[in-house]
Amino acid sequence: MRVLGKISHVSNRGNIIARSKSTPPFRAKVFTSQGQLLGKVQDIFGPTKMPYILIKPIRAINSKKIE
User: Fold this and answer.
1) pLDDT at position 34, please?
2) How many CB atoms neighbour CB 54 within 10 A?
3) Longest dimension (CA), the chain
4) Which residue, among 10, 9, 15, 17, has the nearest Cα to 46 in the 3D structure?
């Protein structure tokens, strides 16, 4: 596994927005640093050198626990 990026914030709809140094494939599985499945890549947007990644979580996320 490789590091995807750093979580920026959780959207109003409960999706996770992360900043990445590379572009992952669509629908790629995303894991936490502890190896737990977090969700899947739903969209990629922003600049090509450091894109934003929209991750659709597999279950509701408590935004206060994400750091």
Assistant:
1) 87
2) 18
3) 30
4) 17
Q: What is the pTM of this model?
A: 0.84
**Hey, where are the domains in the chain?**
5-57
For the record, the structure tokens of 49 come out as: 């050198």
CATH superfamily of 5-57: Probable tRNA pseudouridine synthase domain (2.40.10.230)
Q: What value does the CA radius of gyration of the chain take, rounded to a whole number of Å? A: 11
Concatenated DSSP letters of 22-66: S-PPTT-EEE-TTS-EEEEEEEEES-SSS-EEEEEESS---TTT-
Strand partners, 9: 17
pLDDT of residue 8: 93
pLDDT (tens digit per residue) in 20-40: 999 999 999 999 888 889 999
